Fold:
Amino acid sequence: MSFCYSDDVSVPRLNLWFPHPVLCDGISVHHFSKFIEVLVEKALYEPWPSDFEEQSKWNVEELAPFPLIDSTDNSCAISHHTNEGQYDRKAFRQLQDAKIRKSEPSFTAIEDVRRIVLSFFPLVKIGYDYLTILDADNNTVLWHILVHRPFVTSPLGVPMLLITAVDLEMLRKHRNSSLGENQVEKDHQRIFGVHKKVIVRLPMLTEEGVGVFRHFLRTNSIKMHPTKWQKENLPTLDYSPFLATFLSPLYLDNQHSWDMNEFEVLRKEGIHSCLISPDYLASGLLAGRCSGCGVYCAKLNRCTNCTLAYYCTEQCQRNDWKKHRDMCGPVDC
Amino acid sequence: MKKVGCNLFPGKDNLRNARGSLKRFAVWRNSAMETKGFTKGLKKKLSRETSSYFETGTCSLSATETYALNPTLFEPKTFNWRVDVSSCPFDTYLPLNLKELDTSAQDGIATRYCQKMLAVIVEEYRRRKENIDFQLYLSDDLKFSLLDCEEKFDVIDCSALADEVGLANLIVSASQKLEAHLHALLITESFQWGTVASTVALYLEESLCAPLSMIPTIYGLRVANQVELGRTSFIEIDYPAGFPPITLHWRQAQRFVNVLLNNSPHLKIFVNKLANRCFFNEDERKLREEENCGLKCYTPLTFSSIVANFAEVVKEDVGQQKEIASQFALAQQTLKNWAAGHPVILLMATLPFTPLIDQFLQCQILPGASWLRLVLVPSDHFANYKKQKRKNVKVDFNWAFEIPKSHYVDNFDLHCTKDGNGSFISMQVSFLLPKKHDLEKTHCGIIVDLLTGRTLLIIGDIKDMQQKRYEIPHPSSKHLRHIEAPSKCHVLKVIECQESESHFVINIAIPHNLSTKGKLV
Structure:
């Protein structure tokens, strides 16, 4: 950071360096009579500047497709990594504390992001390729995401989903700062506008999770070369809101954070404990949240039309119809 | 030389049971080899090959082939080569690449694969050795920073030493020998991290006693792995340890320029956490008993090294502000004097090699050093204590509580001297004290077990110990962090800077004569 006087450039600048990167738009200044106080926010959810220059990048167009069937047991290979379809298992009801259903779940930002990422895979499998991420507290849309099929195998051997993402917070800043018609807005319409009808909305449940998800997408974007389509279609701007990036499951570091009895139950159910932690299970998230009242519930019934919304009671479904009808519709695979 | 055998199950009577156990053991090893996509037939062959190695101690492909033996596995007392459960020659080359395996062979599949991979590694080494200077350091892990040379390294690979000596000790020692440029790399590994925390990020915060975002400031290094995002690869359910080993890459962090930190609530929290780890209090016995990952090796010297390393970044002496229990006051004074360049003396007690010393070494040191402490106690009090001991045997003895004016010295050196035949003749115990310690006439030294307080060895009265001035400078004085102090010619100056987990708060003074020069931007 550099400080100087606005009206007298002859006064030497004061240059400050910090051990941790800081956010350009995370600086606030308060003027007092004999000093100024500067509050500088650390860039906690950003790759470090040196990460951008460092590594050799993956050529994602040369990656092999991820097999859909596991050759050893003919099961769905991707679901090994995403724990799909476990919402109404009897075992989870036994493991859950009934009190948790009505209370606010306490889970970490990384759990929130893990859940969102895992949600992508079954949705893309059944045909969705345009999804939005929104802030559950105020329904603000945070990201528009366009999926590029098929699933591929990352150099680390795990399923990988190539995506084009636009950061809508950054887009809004571009919109507010530009004069006249905004080229970035036009690009956004061009890339995402055609997909408006088929939308899936995935809510982020924690404020910190919003930052961690952004960190995840930006970190992944610097690991790969954009695809040919992305090079041709995404604008090359400084501070571009468009990202050529990918999603892969975020696994637990330590599967032994489970109690051994729970571990055995999971194992019998075929759940891979490297994807969910005890806190996540106790939070009730795995049981699913009612799209109507927002309560976490082990037994939910889903909308038979689109199969995307889940409700604990018929009344909740009726109450939510006004919001849900815009996105409800048979899925075109 | 006796026949090579598997020392896991000594005695022929147990061989039948041993074979059954070996089979299970080999199957477990195979799952650790990550053979999920392999056919059943192939897995069986690999299991047989692994089992054969542990049974015979060799994976040679030919009975008549001449091969080199690994001298580190040789037991001089029994003349056996020990086959260790934690060591298999295939481990270094995991995971096995299915495409590279000769699956048509009946046996020796893993061995041939490893031979091929080794040839590749040797070729890589030959190709690079013209441009890279490799050096191996084989002595005491934490004295690495005391190496009497100005040489620094672009890459330092510490293997899994963090599990032995503690991550904080390792980082402070090794980082001082790392080149200052931002591309220099320090590599640390850990096999035991999962015993400390459920995530790698938490393991780092626990081991270094600081939030992730403040580690660059405090230690001068940043972890380059994205530990906040969890693992990027899949863990098989049957992974034996439950958590895979981790490899962490550390880079130099940018230094503060034109800023000196003030003490802040977050820094105080860090200092308190670190002090609690480094100054072991008997009240914490139960909490610390099961500690792994080298956390037991955090001593007053760890605290002194980290605080001294950090001192150039902070205006105030943050270490001084932490109140330490009185039994550590002498140790803290010693280390403070040493760090400041004031004279300290080395005291050495020499003990002839007796059956008692032999027993001490066999039971306490050779199996893997116990958690030991040197206590300096008033000689007359100790004499009384010995008399009372038989009448009043106390478990979990607290020296400072029971015998006032005891001084705890957690950092001491144990050295055994051998004669020309290799037999032990004496043992030396040495430690540092301030030049004026005033204990000469009153105190004696004993070595105790930290967990119980039980006396293990009496090393004698201080008045009988050799004393000489200690000439080796404190490690931090040799390797400054090269912080650029605020320039005196700057008109604008930072008068205060506090750091928290998420922010820096800076106050910049506005000289009076410049207040009309417009707004500071």
User: Anything to note?
Assistant: Residues 109-128 of chain B form the longest helix (20 residues). The radius of gyration of chain B is 27 Å. Chain B touches chain A through 61 residues (CB under 8 Å). Residues 95 and 162 of chain B are 24 Å apart (CA to CA).
